[in-house]
Amino acid sequence: VGIKVTVQDVLTDAEKVVSVAYATYVAKPVGGGKVELKPVQLLSAEDHVEHSLAIERRRIRLGYVQVFQKLMQESNKEGDFYTCEEKDAVSTEHTHVQSTELVLPPHANHHGNTFGGQIMAWMQTVASISASRLCRSHPILKAVNMFKFWGPSFVGDRLVFNAIVNNTFHNSVEVGVRVEAYNCEEWIKDQPRHINSAFLIFNALNDKGELLTFPRVKP
């Protein structure tokens, strides 16, 4: 599903695009069988373009999984091979932030599942605090990459958010966030469920509106 958010100036009637995103849903069957979705009806040239782009985005998503699995396997074989020689590099340990949220009824839909948007809002909060420890300013969220739900969470669950800076790229910084859920029994036994991960990209501006340069980091 494509989502475009615009803001409209009520005086000039001018519109400006604020954000564009694509959300992928899975149809949940009532019984044991699969849900068969009907093909979408393409009515315009723009529809055909978006249809083709959606196929390409799906191909890229599936390719990401294979790429990351390969990188993880290679890094496990080679061990701790990365060292940062830069003198002024900041340890990423300094950027680690953890928070815990209790899922209450207003945070969930009529099925009792936590709203995805609520989880994203909590993730943005903890990630922005992590990024601010490098820029010493108010980080501006520019993009959210690979936001994926690995499993549901429910009313009464404790959600633990762990955020840490993965890397900096001159004027931007990537913060990784991992979300784990616990019900009461899992909390006592310390058996978390990994329900979500994402990578959030931030910029930061100085008083003159210029992009700040982030320091190099040392993992």
From TrEMBL:
MF annotations from Gene Ontology: acetyl-CoA hydrolase activity; carboxylic ester hydrolase activity
**CC terms in the record's Gene Ontology section:** cytosol
Localization annotation: Cytoplasm
Q: Domain HotDog ACOT-type spans what residues?
A: 93-208
Which GO annotations describe the biological process of this protein?
Answer: acetyl-CoA metabolic process; fatty acid metabolic process
Reaction(s) catalysed (UniProt annotation): butanoyl-CoA + H2O = butanoate + CoA + H(+)
Q: Which Gene3D superfamilies match?
A: Hotdog Thioesterase
- Write down the superkingdom of origin: Eukaryota
Keyword terms, alphabetized: Cytoplasm, Fatty acid metabolism, Hydrolase, Lipid metabolism, Repeat, Serine esterase
Query: What InterPro entries does the annotation carry?
Result: Cytosol_ACT (IPR040170), HOTDOG_ACOT (IPR033120), HotDog_dom_sf (IPR029069), Thioestr_dom (IPR006683)
Full protein name: ACO12 thioesterase
Species, as recorded: Leptocoma aspasia
